[in-house]
Design a protein that fits this description.
The protein contains three helices and five strands; from the N terminus they run H-E-E-E-H-E-E-H. By secondary structure, it is an alpha+beta fold. A hairpin with a 6-residue loop joins strand 2 and strand 3. Helix 2 crosses helix 3. This is HIT domain-containing protein. It comes from Hoeflea alexandrii.
Length: 134
């Protein structure tokens, strides 16, 4: 893990909330959706199949607990989980809370409008609820 370096774009677009067993849990800097990233702390990984079977298992576990916490903290209708990697090759997994009537519903969030920064109080409240749910 000592040679792990976070992609500069992921670092710019998100904030570290905590480190789990395998992944960094990061909050996306877009308040339109409660949206977190899981970034495995492994170097040179761009696809899930490049991870060891144990890391794949850990990722599945951490995805489930993070997704459940996002749903609980946001009260959303649906959780979307995806790993695209077309713009940022470093493997990372998006966990996004979705609701009917959100800015991109029912389409994907990627490429929809401009990111809206979190208000300090809203960020603190969501982060507190999320970490408590974890």
């Amino acid at each position: 893990m000592s040679d792990f370096v976070l992609d500069p774009r992921l670092e710019r677009d998100s904030t570290l909330l905590m480190k789990l067993g395998l992944c960094q849990l990061r909050l996306m800097e877009d308040s339109r959706w409660p949206w977190v990233l899981l970034v495995p702390q492994r170097s040179g990984i761009s696809e899930i199949f490049e991870m060891t079977p144990l890391d794949q298992t850990m990722l599945t576990f951490e995805t489930a607990i993070a997704a459940k916490a996002v749903k609980q903290a946001s009260g959303c209708l649906k959780i979307n989980v995806g790993a695209l990697g077309n713009q940022v090759r470093q493997f990372h997994l998006h966990i996004i809370a979705r609701d009917e009537g959100d800015p991109a519903w029912p389409g994907p969030v990627w490429g929809h409008g401009q990111a809206k920064p979190w208000a300090t109080s809203a960020r603190a409240e969501f982060t507190e609820r999320l970490l408590e749910a974890l």
